[in-house]
Amino acid sequence: MSFFHRPRAPNELVKSVETDLAIIEEKKDAKAIEKAVKSLTKKAEQIKFLLYGDAENPPNNDVI
């Protein structure tokens, strides 16, 4: 992750996932689809971290 990256709120993640899925469903521009897939991959990792945490950070129950 970028040094200047701020954590996204769960509702922001969901909205951006919906946007990326809409781009993929349009199936018009291959580069836009590829970019949306990469973005979805990163967001899926962020959502997984929010739900499950990692070895050093437990999940935040307030978010769940």
UniProtKB/TrEMBL annotation:
<protein>
    <submittedName>
        <fullName>Uncharacterized protein</fullName>
    </submittedName>
</protein>
<dbReference type="InterPro" id="IPR011989">
    <property type="entry name" value="ARM-like"/>
</dbReference>
